């Protein structure tokens, strides 16, 4: 294992994220820090980063290095975007940083910035076709993704800071002001003929402005799920947030629930840009990505650039198993046993995906306590970001695991708006297969070849060696048999 620091020098903020890398290409965050330096505001009219801006850069990097030393960092990757990219004195800045701190800054092109954003999203959200928009401090990256690959990418000089300078929205906006912003953006979009190929595609938002939209909308509806990544809003939802924010003066924007205070003064114009892009391309859905440039860099570091065939869910589960120190051999056993059952019962591909995640991660709560493991697992999964699953799917996996520990567990009123009655019945059904697999492993498991399963219209029968039946017959199986009959309309028999 070794620790690596990724330092992102943005135009609005600077961040350091420290990762612990494992030998199996897994990684986890062990520390991070953010500084709102707004370097973009220190670029003068001649495109030079001022001395004050350089001092802020150096001080932040010095502090980041202290954090890195405290975490035994062995490798540094330092990247910079538009503020340094456009600075005419960038060579002097890079030389100074190298001399004072021994850090080599890699200045990313707009296209490289777009590609890293794409990699972060492609490794964490299951999609093939979409428009990506990443609004940073000084630039706006738009990418057209078709069949899982970036087909067109562009970086425009309209990040949060320059766009806000052009459209400050310090008072409640008039219809004319909102129209002026929209017309300006449409003119920029008109210069991108390939954007027409993104008509009706979902828009995936990267960066602080996109995250703020999701946070505001979630607060407005008391959304019960804390996870923000892969949160989906409708076009009407985005429009509602835009209308709400533009109706306020600057002082009132600082009071908006979900809107970070440090972003309140530079949020309205980029919000308008996202709303305008969705209108321009007639997009119905806006999806939030919690991840962007830094995550793209770490994914490239551990996986390389060829990620088209990456199984997002498999990789995410592997990372969780590694980072939580779970027994991989046991997880694989339970999944193989669940597979034997699911094949006989002819589950749908969707049900198998949920069962796979639940079976492999069902013991995550053991790290809290073996007692009531299923309760701890329920809450840990509920607050995990299992990449490749939607919020509803993560919630269902939580309930599959929870029900496997307590078959009469009820659906909380908090989540009734997210899980339908039919989906909760699916959770109950799949939890039974997890219970049966766990009991086979505990009371019998020796060799899969010694297990025979028959399935007909009346019953599912598991045939074990006679020497093993006596151990498993006495396990508390009456509830399982009763619930199996309800869920599958057939008897469950062990012989």
Automatic annotation (TrEMBL):
Record-stated family: Belongs to the GppA/Ppx family.
Domain Ppx/GppA phosphatase C-terminal span(s) in chain numbering: 315-463
Keyword Hydrolase: yes
NCBIfam families per the UniProt record, alphabetical: exo_poly_only (TIGR03706)
E.C. no: 3.6.1.11
InterPro entries (UniProt xref): ATPase_NBD, Exopolyphosphatase, GppA/Ppx_hydrolase, Ppx_GppA_C, Ppx_GppA_N, PyroPPase_GppA_Ppx
Keywords linked to the UniProt accession: Hydrolase
Gene3D superfamilies per the UniProt record, alphabetical: 3.30.420.40, Exopolyphosphatase. Domain 2, Hypothetical protein af1432
Keyword Methyltransferase belongs to the record: no
CDD domains: ASKHA_NBD_HpPPX-GppA-like
GO molecular function, one term: exopolyphosphatase activity
Domain Ppx/GppA phosphatase N-terminal: 22-302
Gene label: ppx
UniProt cross-references to Pfam families, sorted A to Z: Ppx-GppA, Ppx-GppA_III
Protein name stated in the entry: Exopolyphosphatase
Reaction equations catalysed: [phosphate](n) + H2O = [phosphate](n-1) + phosphate + H(+)
GO BP annotations listed: phosphorus metabolic process; regulation of transcription by RNA polymerase II
């Amino acid at each position: 294992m070794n620790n690596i620091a990724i330092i992102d020098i943005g135009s609005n903020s600077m961040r350091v994220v420290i990762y612990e890398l494992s030998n199996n290409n897994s990684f986890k965050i062990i520390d991070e820090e953010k500084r709102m330096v707004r370097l973009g505001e220190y670029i003068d009219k001649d495109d030079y980063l001022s001395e004050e801006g350089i001092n802020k850069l150096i001080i932040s990097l010095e502090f980041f290095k202290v954090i890195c030393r405290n975490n035994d960092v062995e490798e540094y990757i330092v990247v910079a975007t538009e503020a340094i990219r456009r600075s005419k004195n960038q060579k002097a800045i890079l030389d100074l940083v190298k001399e004072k701190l021994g850090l080599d800054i890699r200045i990313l092109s707009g296209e490289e910035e777009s590609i890293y954003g794409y990699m972060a999203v492609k490794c964490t959200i299951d999609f093939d076709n979409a428009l990506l928009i990443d609004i940073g401090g000084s630039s706006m990256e738009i990418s057209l993704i078709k069949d899982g690959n970036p087909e067109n990418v562009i970086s425009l000089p309209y990040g949060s800071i320059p766009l806000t300078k052009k459209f400050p929205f310090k008072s409640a906006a008039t219809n004319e002001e909102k129209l002026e912003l929209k017309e300006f953006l449409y003119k920029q979009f008109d210069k991108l003929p390939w954007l027409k190929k993104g008509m009706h595609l979902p828009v995936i938002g990267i960066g602080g402005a996109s995250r703020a939209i999701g946070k505001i909308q979630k607060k407005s509806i008391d959304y019960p799920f804390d996870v923000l990544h892969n949160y989906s809003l409708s076009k009407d939802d985005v429009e509602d947030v835009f209308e709400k924010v533009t109706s306020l003066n600057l002082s009132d924007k600082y009071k908006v629930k979900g809107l970070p205070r440090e972003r309140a003064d530079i949020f309205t114009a980029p919000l308008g840009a996202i709303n305008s892009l969705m209108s321009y391309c007639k997009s119905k859905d806006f999806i939030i990505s919690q991840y962007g440039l830094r995550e793209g860099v770490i994914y490239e570091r551990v996986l390389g650039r060829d990620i088209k065939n990456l199984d997002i869910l498999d990789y995410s589960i592997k990372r969780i198993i590694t980072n939580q120190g779970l027994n991989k051999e046991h997880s694989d056993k339970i999944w193989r046993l669940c597979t034997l059952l699911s094949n006989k019962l002819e589950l749908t591909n969707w049900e198998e995906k949920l069962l796979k995640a639940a079976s492999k991660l069902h013991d995550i709560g053991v790290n809290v306590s073996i007692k009531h493991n299923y309760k701890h697992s329920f809450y840990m999964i509920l607050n995990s970001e299992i990449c490749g699953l939607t919020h509803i799917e993560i919630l269902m996996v939580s309930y599959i695991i929870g029900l496997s520990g307590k078959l009469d567990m009820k659906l909380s009123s908090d989540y009734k708006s997210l899980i339908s009655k039919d989906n909760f019945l699916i959770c109950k059904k799949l939890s039974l297969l997890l219970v049966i697999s766990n009991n086979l492993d505990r009371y019998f498991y020796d060799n899969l070849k010694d297990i025979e399963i028959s399935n007909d219209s009346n019953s599912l029968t598991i045939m074990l060696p006679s020497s093993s039946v006596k151990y498993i017959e006495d396990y508390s199986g009456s509830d399982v048999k009763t619930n199996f009959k309800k869920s599958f309309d057939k008897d469950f028999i062990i012989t």
